[in-house]
Amino acid sequence: MNSYCSECLQECVIKNFIIQTSSLSLPGEWEMEKIKKFVENSTISLPTNWSRTWQDEIRKNYLAINVVRETSIVKNSTQSATMDVVDVFSNVGGQTGLWIGISLLSIMELIEMLYRLIRNEFHIIRRKIQANRQ
């Protein structure tokens, strides 16, 4: 039941109904006269011996169906796939750290190291220039 053909999409709405059945072998005695009057006043063809066997006929042929809902609660569930900016950065950072071994902290340390090297070289060049002036 969960397989779909290649041309059919999966269903978007699922309706589930809980089914519980019960039965009663024959109508109650208090209903017999009411059913008899209904049958006699309708266009249903009656057997020739109706006046004598009407109770047996009703017991053999009577059917009542009551459809009742179990609860009036309706449950709506909505699912949506969303990713915000934090999720994107977290996923990219996590995958990068997992597969390459680089974390944001490692990148910041690399930037700091490059800054210190450039600053150190700048100071060395500056000292050489000052030493040449004197």
From TrEMBL:
Membrane-related topology note: Multi-pass membrane protein
Pfam families, per the entry: ASC
Main subcellular localisation: membrane
A cellular component term, taken from the record's GO annotations: plasma membrane
Sample GO molecular function, one term: ligand-gated sodium channel activity
Keywords per UniProt: Ion channel, Ion transport, Membrane, Sodium, Sodium channel, Sodium transport, Transmembrane, Transmembrane helix, Transport
Membrane-traversing stretches: 98-118
Subcellular location: Membrane
InterPro entries for the chain: ENaC
Family according to the record: Belongs to the amiloride-sensitive sodium channel (TC 1.A.6) family.
PANTHER family named in the record: AMILORIDE-SENSITIVE SODIUM CHANNEL-RELATED (PTHR11690), PICKPOCKET 17, ISOFORM A (PTHR11690:SF248)
Protein name: Uncharacterized protein
